[in-house]
Amino acid sequence: MGTIRSKYPKASIVCLTSPMANEALTVVQQKYLTDVVDYVNSKGDKQVYKYFFTKSRNKGCGGHPELSEHGEIAQELTVFLKLTLNW
């Protein structure tokens, strides 16, 4: 996080779970991201956020999202960004 912040000192940073992850991996990602974001926030950087996708989207080739799922991912994340960052 320090490297990213050093290159982009004014940026809002959003840490995301993978929209392709299964339930078990999502649980692990949520824990790690919560720990990282809480730590960074506790050190004074309040411009770091976390977002957990609501479901797995991996119906395309090789476990990746198909086209319609990419739209769902974008829509879900856009709502979060608008609310959180006042876009």
From TrEMBL:
InterPro entries hit by this protein: SGNH_hydro_sf
Gene Ontology MF term list: hydrolase activity, acting on ester bonds
Protein name, as recorded: Uncharacterized protein
